[in-house]
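Now for a concrete sample entry.
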Amino acid sequence: MLLILTFNPKQACMRKNLLYLLAALLVLSSCDASKDQPEPEQVLFRAYYLQKQVANYVWPNGSTGTIEQLYSYNDQNQLIGISATTYSKTEPLHQTLSYNDNNQVVHIQSTPLQSWSNTYNENHQLIKQVRTTIQDDETTDVHYYQNTFNDAGELTEAQIRNIKDNVDEPGPVFKYAYTDGQVTSILSEYPAGGRYVDHFYTYDDKLAPLPSYLPQVIGIKYSSYFLPGKFPSQHNIASYIALDENGERKKIYCYTATYTYNEAGYPVTCTKNFEDGTVEKTTYTYVLI
């Protein structure tokens, strides 16, 4: 059987126009669909959870040490526990975290004798962080951060306050500056004037091991300040500088960091070189949920 094809220029032109129209519709529909899809960071934060973190240290005098931290989660995938063993402790340390119905950390039991209680406003902003410590003489020391936010929801100012003999005494004030939604500097001074400690940050463009909504006071840290508010970025810190009251670099705290990452963009190794000569090498292990 012989099939004869005929060519009609007018029909061909119409088909061509229909093909162009169909292609355009496909492009538009794919763009609209992409708007409804979650950002990769949101998906990854729900999928990858930090399970283990091991930091090995070499100090300038040649001595070494290790801090190992294990992270546990509940059925809602909320971080509820951090267990740590350190080079300076014979007994493991354990922190527990409790949440409200808005997935906000309301209580942290840092040690058997120290805890943090968090208060949020109607905009779900962390406005107060109270640390309660039972001293050796069984007296109670209360120290808290009072946090202030701008209209964009950014933490702009925080003040340390101490309660001594039922008197609320003001401490240093921290002032935050941002670039592209990330904290790039925290300048602090005493209420009567004079610099306290200034902090400066740069970041990479990858995801941090822990989500940025968690308070900074969690976990065991070497040569690090416990600062008000949450983590300064959802990305990893590439460099950190701390300046003392005279504007001099506090070399035991200042560092640069390099990372390697897994296929999802989370760090699996980190090397921090501190300006005092200390080297910290950390490995991260995740569980995929």
About this structure: Residues 47-288 form a domain with the Porin fold (CATH 2.40.160.190). The helical segments are 9-36, 40-47. Confidence is low (pLDDT under 50) at residues 1-45. The longest strand covers residues 167-179.
